[in-house]
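The data are set out underneath:

___
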Amino acid sequence: MKEKKCNDKNCPIHGNIKVRGNIMTGVVVSDKMDKSVIVEREYIRKVPKYERYERRKSRIAVHKPECMDVKVGDVVEFGETRKISKTKSFVITKVLGGKK
Protein backbone atom coordinates (compact mmCIF):
# COMPACT_ATOMS: atom_id res chain seq x y z
CA MET A 1 0.00 0.00 0.00
CA LYS A 2 1.40 3.37 -1.03
CA GLU A 3 1.77 5.93 1.78
CA LYS A 4 0.04 9.24 1.02
CA LYS A 5 1.52 12.63 1.95
CA CYS A 6 -0.29 13.99 5.00
CA ASN A 7 -0.26 17.62 6.17
CA ASP A 8 -3.22 17.15 8.52
CA LYS A 9 -2.44 18.36 12.06
CA ASN A 10 -5.39 16.24 13.33
CA CYS A 11 -3.94 12.97 11.96
CA PRO A 12 -3.10 10.46 14.74
CA ILE A 13 -0.11 9.10 12.74
CA HIS A 14 1.44 12.20 11.10
CA GLY A 15 -0.09 15.01 13.16
CA ASN A 16 0.02 15.97 16.81
CA ILE A 17 -3.38 14.84 18.11
CA LYS A 18 -3.51 12.33 20.96
CA VAL A 19 -5.97 9.43 20.96
CA ARG A 20 -7.26 8.72 24.46
CA GLY A 21 -10.37 7.18 25.93
CA ASN A 22 -12.60 4.82 23.97
CA ILE A 23 -11.40 2.97 20.87
CA MET A 24 -14.29 1.52 18.84
CA THR A 25 -15.02 -0.05 15.47
CA GLY A 26 -17.84 0.70 13.05
CA VAL A 27 -18.94 0.88 9.43
CA VAL A 28 -18.70 4.07 7.35
CA VAL A 29 -22.21 5.00 6.16
CA SER A 30 -21.55 8.48 4.71
CA ASP A 31 -18.45 10.18 3.28
CA LYS A 32 -20.03 13.28 1.73
CA MET A 33 -18.29 15.76 4.03
CA ASP A 34 -14.82 17.14 3.28
CA LYS A 35 -12.70 15.86 6.20
CA SER A 36 -15.33 13.84 8.05
CA VAL A 37 -17.27 10.60 7.79
CA ILE A 38 -20.29 9.23 9.61
CA VAL A 39 -19.60 5.89 11.26
CA GLU A 40 -22.41 3.62 12.48
CA ARG A 41 -21.66 1.22 15.30
CA GLU A 42 -23.91 -1.50 16.62
CA TYR A 43 -24.03 -2.47 20.29
CA ILE A 44 -26.15 -4.61 22.60
CA ARG A 45 -28.04 -3.12 25.56
CA LYS A 46 -29.76 -5.02 28.35
CA VAL A 47 -33.41 -4.26 29.12
CA PRO A 48 -33.71 -5.07 32.84
CA LYS A 49 -37.52 -5.10 32.95
CA TYR A 50 -37.82 -7.91 30.39
CA GLU A 51 -34.46 -9.56 31.17
CA ARG A 52 -33.60 -9.46 27.47
CA TYR A 53 -31.06 -7.75 25.25
CA GLU A 54 -31.73 -5.36 22.38
CA ARG A 55 -29.55 -4.35 19.46
CA ARG A 56 -28.99 -0.61 19.05
CA LYS A 57 -27.12 1.63 16.60
CA SER A 58 -25.40 4.96 17.02
CA ARG A 59 -24.06 7.27 14.33
CA ILE A 60 -20.89 9.19 15.18
CA ALA A 61 -19.18 12.00 13.24
CA VAL A 62 -15.50 11.05 12.88
CA HIS A 63 -12.53 13.04 11.51
CA LYS A 64 -10.97 11.49 8.37
CA PRO A 65 -7.22 12.28 7.98
CA GLU A 66 -5.92 13.13 4.48
CA CYS A 67 -3.68 10.05 4.35
CA MET A 68 -6.52 7.53 4.81
CA ASP A 69 -8.60 6.38 1.86
CA VAL A 70 -12.02 5.63 3.34
CA LYS A 71 -15.16 4.76 1.36
CA VAL A 72 -18.75 3.93 2.30
CA GLY A 73 -18.94 0.36 3.59
CA ASP A 74 -15.40 0.23 5.02
CA VAL A 75 -14.93 -1.08 8.55
CA VAL A 76 -12.78 1.39 10.53
CA GLU A 77 -11.27 1.68 13.99
CA PHE A 78 -11.62 5.11 15.59
CA GLY A 79 -10.55 6.61 18.88
CA GLU A 80 -11.65 9.41 21.17
CA THR A 81 -9.68 12.68 21.13
CA ARG A 82 -10.16 16.25 22.25
CA LYS A 83 -12.96 18.19 20.51
CA ILE A 84 -12.02 18.86 16.86
CA SER A 85 -15.24 20.72 16.01
CA LYS A 86 -18.78 21.11 17.34
CA THR A 87 -19.77 17.53 16.51
CA LYS A 88 -16.43 15.71 16.13
CA SER A 89 -14.41 14.28 18.99
CA PHE A 90 -13.27 11.04 17.32
CA VAL A 91 -10.60 10.35 14.68
CA ILE A 92 -10.00 7.32 12.42
CA THR A 93 -6.91 5.35 13.48
CA LYS A 94 -7.09 2.33 11.14
CA VAL A 95 -9.00 1.05 8.13
CA LEU A 96 -9.76 -2.60 8.94
CA GLY A 97 -11.20 -3.68 5.60
CA GLY A 98 -13.99 -3.59 3.10
CA LYS A 99 -17.67 -4.31 3.58
CA LYS A 100 -18.81 -5.92 6.81
